[in-house]
Amino acid sequence: MNEIVTERPNLFEPNVYITLCTEIAGKVCPLELSAAVKQAFEANEATMSKIVLEHGFAYYEKMSASHCKIEIQNENQNWIELVNQNEKIPFAIDKGELVRVFIIPSEDKTKIIIMAHHLVGDGKSIIYFVKDIMNALSDIPLTYKPLTLLERNLPRKGLSLVAKLYVRYCKNKWNNRFFTWQDYYNLHDKYWKIVSSDIRCETLSARETQRIKDGAKKIGCSVNSYIVTMFLQKHPNLSRVGIPVSIRPFKNEAMSNLTSGISIKHKYAVEKTFAQNAVRVHKKITRKLKRYKVFVLQFLAKLPMTLIDAVLLNTYDSCGERLAKKTAKVLGYFGKYTKDLGISNLTVIDIPVSYGNYEIINIIFVPPAVSYSHNIIGVSTINGRMTISYHNITK
């Protein structure tokens, strides 16, 4: 059984949709593209599965046919407005609707908009899903890819004594209350009645992108550390930064959730140079990666699974459990540990851009505006150009 363990926080999260806008040169036949998407669904176990929730246990169950959706839109459809509309409609993950694909054709370029529930995979997964679509469109046979679940491969050691004691405390105190699909849908509806989503994107020129790369190299830090420092400089009131970390095995292209995360705290020091701040940020990130790369996953895997559900429900006043409220603070869903800024960088997109007669012009990555971070930044680089997206939730 493919039980949901380290991915459990995504189960009741009301805004956990990963969005990818892929632009293909020229007008592509929508029906042929739709058929290619269907082949990509059939080639991945994740998109052939539904989520089962029974007496507190949650797991993936493979189906005979995919219930993910494909829609062809009018060429004048604004893709960001389309995403905003669909964020408010809960994914029927209990029926197998884990992905929605929208095709927007036009004469100069065709857009493929992929909205994926985080339970189907991470940002890298959706990139490889695009590769499957493009290969299918070019009549290249696809290889079936099974789910890869992190929990089975996590190191058994690594939790601090404090973390172990808190896990023990939770197991002793938690009443094992479990929740249902009705709670899932009620929470989603309640959340989207009081919030709105703001998505903005900017694609830098090749010259601007190279300037960032050269700047990072000159300072002696990574491009990601450089970008983090840029945002902290622009918003000096921000200091707590969450950074997703890919722990995907080499050459694994499955649609699976193979991401951990770290966080740092750095208030931009105006009395120091940008380079000095960037070096400091880079050292903090490097140190955290060395010591705590999979800590959050190890910690989640040890907690009672239904307590994690309660944390999400408690965050939106849908659960009155005291232990859930306390654990929500520990996990950073509110209080002083909530992140001011989340930056998810897919780096240079590692799939081909040319597929027979078809060519990818750009890929725009919009990460989900998760509950434990106030401002979410997405970064993707392809064809020498970097696109930066901003995703924020306002009440």
| Order of strands across the main sheet | 5-6-7-2-13-12
- How many runs of DSSP E, i.e. beta strands? 15
Radius of gyration: 21 Å
Distance N to C terminus: 39 Å
Structural class: alpha+beta
Strand count, sense and closure of the main sheet?
6 strands, mixed
Q: What overall form do the CA principal axes indicate?
A: globular
- Which range best describes the helical content: under 10%, 10-25%, 25-40%, 40-55%, 55-70% or over 70%? 25-40%
The tally of helices reads: 12
Task: Identify the quaternary structure here.
Answer: single chain
User: What is the N-to-C order of secondary-structure elements (H for helix, E for strand)?
Assistant: EHEHEEEHEEHHHEHHEEHHHHEEEEE
Beta-strand content estimate: 25-35%
Q: In terms of per-residue confidence, which ranges show pLDDT below 50 for 5 or more consecutive residues?
A: none
Mean pLDDT: 94
Question: Any key phrases for this structure?
Answer:
alpha+beta, 395 residues, six-stranded mixed beta sheet
Topology at a glance:
Layout: E1 2-3, H1 9-12, E2 17-25, H2 30-42, E3 49-54, E4 57-62, E5 69-72, H3 79-87, E6 99-104, E7 109-117, H4 123-137, H5 161-173, H6 181-194, E8 196-203, H7 206-219, H8 223-234, E9 240-246, E10 259-265, H9 274-292, H10 295-302, H11 305-315, H12 322-330, E11 341-348, E12 354-355, E13 358-366, E14 375-382, E15 385-394
Parallel strand pairs: 5-6, 9-11, 11-14
Antiparallel strand pairs: 1-4, 2-7, 2-13, 3-4, 6-7, 8-15, 9-10, 12-13, 14-15
Helix pairs in contact: 2-4, 7-8, 8-9, 11-12
